[in-house]
Design a protein that fits this description.
Elements lengths: L21 H6 L43 H16 L39 E6 L5 H17 L5 E5 L7 H6 L8 E5 L6 H20 L6 E3 L7 H14 L10 E7 L5 H18 L3 E5 L10 H10 L4 E6 L6 H8 L4 E2 L7 H15 L13
Parallel strand pairs: 1-2, 1-3, 3-4, 5-6, 5-7, 7-8
Keywords: Lyase, Metal-binding
Pfam family, one: CbiX
Protein name: Sirohydrochlorin chelatase
Length: 378
């Protein structure tokens, strides 16, 4: 019996005549011969090791110059390069600031709360133009043209018309037609001074309309604007009408004067306002201006003929009559017939008058709703 050698010679060649070790042959798999081509019809054995010199760590990028010997190496390279590329971006698609770091799963941030809706601007109150009314059909046409001019200056504004008397629609009818729960309205008198209509008729109509709205459980604020005059915009309109009638343009001319003809009123405040307007016009023209009235009262006693005599006593040889009325009518015709020289047309649909209506509207709109028999500040 040949004794076993506990220290075999590693350089010794195996004995080709020795019988194979059954245990070794069962546990040991011979590496593939690289010179033998693979049969494409034969599936790869997953237990077959690849070339031990080729790294298979999928996290280690492969050298693109390294030849690929197997399909597994090709898949390994694709996986490695794809992982490297995906590691440079987040799940949102943005580039990472550190592309070499280990990819960390990211999740979309929670959607921020939606911003509060932008509040819709409240609709402005309507502008209700309160005209006196006249039997002369030219008056209604003039007022309608003035309303159109106001609308053109303030597109989108709800502009309505109401009359104190003689014409329709009546003021109370116009106020009833306002939306019950709307923004309300500002009542702007188409009147040139303070007087009974401004202090009593218009506030009473507004109070009645407000009471009716409150009885229905609705809120529809109404505001009262001041009368138009006196104001420099009215003076500009008067100057335009005088020049249209032939008043000399340029420096003041000696021997010229103007009668400012208004309607007249029992209210002394009306006379104060008209005298103030006459003073503004005198400064604008540089000539004497005397107020006069078509319907004289104890507070407004001067007639147009009396005013003309007063100017003549002051050396005025050329006296013109400025019609201090908003529209044609009986009074405007009456004072024009008394003019010895020039007679200007009423203010009418003048841009300055339209701008003044909006100015009074804005003044009253910026204030709190007023009570009965109160007016917004002039």
């Amino acid at each position: 019996m040949t004794p076993s050698n506990p220290h075999p010679d590693p350089t010794a060649l195996p004995d080709p005549t020795a019988s194979p070790d059954p245990i070794a042959s069962a546990d040991t798999v011979a590496p593939p011969d690289p010179t033998t081509p693979l049969d494409p019809t034969t599936p790869l054995d997953p237990t077959t090791p690849l070339d031990p010199t080729t790294p298979l760590d999928p996290t280690t990028p492969l050298d693109p110059t390294t030849p690929l010997d197997t399909t597994a190496q090709l898949i390994t390279r694709i996986t490695s390069e794809l992982g490297a590329c995906l590691g440079r971006v987040t799940l949102r698609g943005s580039r990472r600031t550190d592309p070499d770091r280990t990819p960390v799963p990211t999740f979309p941030a929670p959607a921020p709360h939606a911003p509060p809706p932008t509040p819709v601007p409240a609709s402005p109150p309507a502008l209700v133009l309160v005209a006196h009314g006249s039997r002369d059909p030219r008056a209604h046409r003039t007022v309608t043209a003035l309303l159109d001019l106001v609308r053109s200056l303030r597109p989108g504004l709800d502009v309505r018309l109401g009359h104190i008397e003689l014409n329709g629609p009546a003021l109370d009818e116009t106020l009833r037609g306002l939306p019950a729960d709307g923004p309300g309205a500002v009542l702007v008198p188409l009147l040139l001074s303070r007087g009974y209509h401004v202090k009593h008729d218009i506030p009473a109509a507004a109070a009645t309309a407000a009471a009716a709205t409150a009885a229905l459980g609705s809120a529809r604020p109404l505001r009262l604007a001041a009368p138009l005059g006196p104001h420099p915009l009215l003076i500009e309109a008067l100057h335009t009408r005088l020049t249209e009638a032939g008043w000399p343009v340029g420096a003041a001319v000696a021997g010229h004067g103007v009668v400012l003809a208004a309607a007249g009123s029992r209210d002394p405040d009306s006379a104060v306002d008209t005298r103030r307007a006459a003073g503004l016009l005198a400064r604008r023209l540089g000539v004497p201006v005397v107020p006069a009235y078509a319907a004289p009262t104890e507070h407004t006693p001067t007639t147009v003929p009396a005013a003309l005599r007063a100017l003549a006593a002051r050396g005025v040889r050329h006296a013109a009559v400025a019609s201090y009325f908003t529209a044609p009518g009986r009074f405007a015709t009456q004072v024009a017939d008394a003019a010895p020289w020039l007679a200007a047309a009423p203010l009418g649909a003048h841009p300055a008058l339209a701008a003044l209506l909006l100015h009074r509207y804005d003044q009253a709109r910026s204030a709190a709703p007023v009570a009965h028999r109160q007016l917004a500040s002039a």
